[in-house]
Specification:
Strand content: 15-25%
Number of strands: 22
Largest sheet: 7 strands, mixed
Structural class: alpha/beta
Shape: globular
Radius of gyration: 22 Å
Number of helices: 15
């Protein structure tokens, strides 16, 4: 007997951030949220993030989390502050990482933007609400299905960050798949993204729906070349990077380059308290790493540490970097230069044409990183105009997301069963390109929903 589910795209459409989707069993009234993320980078982001939810958080029974990036978890404290008392489910690493990510966001809010502290936001991201969040959180490893009333839930490995999951939801014999963010497999440290071959409906990310990454081998060669150039020129090399996953990948690959003598010994600074904490989580969950990384960890416990690397968790240690002579290499968050310690280094080092900034991932529209990537001659940092004279380098191969061809390959595995694909978490041009490729290659119905749209899934 056919049943109906209502799916609402609350946010996370027409943009690459802000994942938040509501699935409702209209017969029983059960309400399941998938992700509850911050909208990042856009001019209207603060207004959107501070707005009330399009649903009543008190009515939400379950929150399923794909992974621990802020654009998938960052509004959970607001959800709790507004009355959510349901259960949060994720993999074990995602729970641990989420606590650090939310605490870091709370720390940023408590220090304000340009000296302006939003007391209402500080109260929402309070220690009390974060503790409530953690008490509501339960975990299941990959491939350990669990039931929520008439729903069967299963987490599969998406290969994006440590503990990231594709969420399979089976209802009345039909499978609804929320891909979360799909990893750019093979990863230096993570298991490959799993494929789905029996989806009926798919809610699919499409960040890189219209373009491909450079060859994976080329990215490591370019990393080596940029480091060698910085050493030769006696430059400061800045690497804005995401504290979660990108930092650990870079540390792992630089460890390999240093160990093999492929690059000269030079001072590296890991200038991110959050990245330092998260790297410890990666060590805790080494069983979630791929076979190669696990084998290396058995012979070398410090697969993320190498000669010349200094961690600078304290603010005073970070300020000391400015006094250190060149050449030096700074790895700091955030990956889009939208906050964190990297912006202070960019303020200091961008005006010098001898210096280099290396962008290693996607730069969302409206972020400082996007302006630098697009060649702006000057940018504003903390209200001050800063000339961009440093050399700008980019390595797209370090993206944590599947590119266009890999997304098509992912769809191909379930093209024989899937009735409808909804593309989310992408700019409209990327989604349109991918949608057309899906239609042309498989004859499958695919489209990009609009914010607030509800659809009925026939189960």
């Amino acid at each position: 007997m056919s049943k109906k589910l209502k799916l609402t795209f609350c946010t996370g459409v027409d943009t690459v951030t802000g994942a938040n989707y509501l699935l409702e069993d209209e017969e029983t009234g059960l309400k399941i949220l998938v992700d509850c993320g911050l909208i990042q980078g856009e001019k209207s982001a603060d207004e959107d993030n501070n707005a009330q939810f399009s649903y009543d958080p008190k009515d939400i029974d379950v929150l399923l989390i794909t992974h621990a990036h802020l654009d998938h978890i960052g509004r959970i404290p607001r959800l709790i502050d507004a009355g959510f008392k349901g259960v949060i489910y994720s993999t074990p690493p995602t729970k641990d990482i989420s606590k650090f990510m939310i605490e870091d966001e709370a720390h940023i809010l408590s220090h304000g933007h340009n000296g302006n502290i939003n007391k209402e936001l500080v109260a929402i991201y309070s220690e009390e609400n974060i503790n409530k969040m953690m008490t509501l959180w339960k975990t299941f490893p990959y491939h350990h299905p669990f039931a929520i009333e008439n729903f069967q839930i299963n987490f599969k490995n998406s290969g994006h960050v440590l503990g990231s999951a594709i969420i399979e939801i089976i209802f009345n014999g039909k499978k609804i798949v929320f891909t979360g963010d799909l990893g750019n497999s093979p990863s230096p440290i993570l298991e490959d993204c799993e494929f789905i071959n029996d989806a009926d409906y798919m809610i699919m990310e499409a960040v890189y729906g219209d373009r491909n990454h450079e060859n994976r081998d080329d990215r490591k060669i370019k990393l080596e070349d940029v480091i060698e150039e910085a050493v030769k020129k006696r430059s400061t090399l800045m690497m804005p990077t995401f504290s979660l996953e990108r930092t650990q990948e870079l540390l792992f690959e630089i460890h390999d380059l240093v160990t093999k003598g492929s690059i000269p010994l030079v001072p590296f600074f890991l200038d991110s308290p959050l990245a330092i904490k998260l790297t410890d989580v990666y060590r805790k969950y080494e069983n979630y790493l791929n076979a190669e990384a696990q084998d290396m960890a058995k012979s070398d416990r410090n697969i993320f540490i190498f000669p010349g690397l200094r961690s600078t968790p304290e603010a005073d240690q970070s300020k000391m970097i400015l006094r250190m002579p060149n050449p030096k290499i700074i790895i700091a968050g955030s990956g889009m230069s939208s906050g964190g310690r990297i912006v202070h280094h960019e303020h200091n080092y961008l005006p010098d044409p001898n210096n280099i900034i290396l962008l290693t991932g996607y730069q969302a529209v409206g972020t400082l990183g996007r302006y630098i990537q697009e060649g702006s001659p000057s940018v504003y940092i903390n209200g001050e105009e800063v000339q961009v004279r440093a050399k700008v380098e980019m390595i797209s191969g370090y993206s944590g997301h599947k590119d266009s061809d890999a997304l098509i390959e992912f769809v191909s595995s379930t093209s024989g069963t899937v009735k409808q694909i909804f593309t989310v978490m992408s700019e409209p041009s990327s989604a349109s390109f991918l949608i057309q490729k899906i239609r042309d290659n498989f004859g499958v119905s695919a489209r990009q929903p609009i914010k607030g749209e509800s659809v009925i899934l026939d189960c």
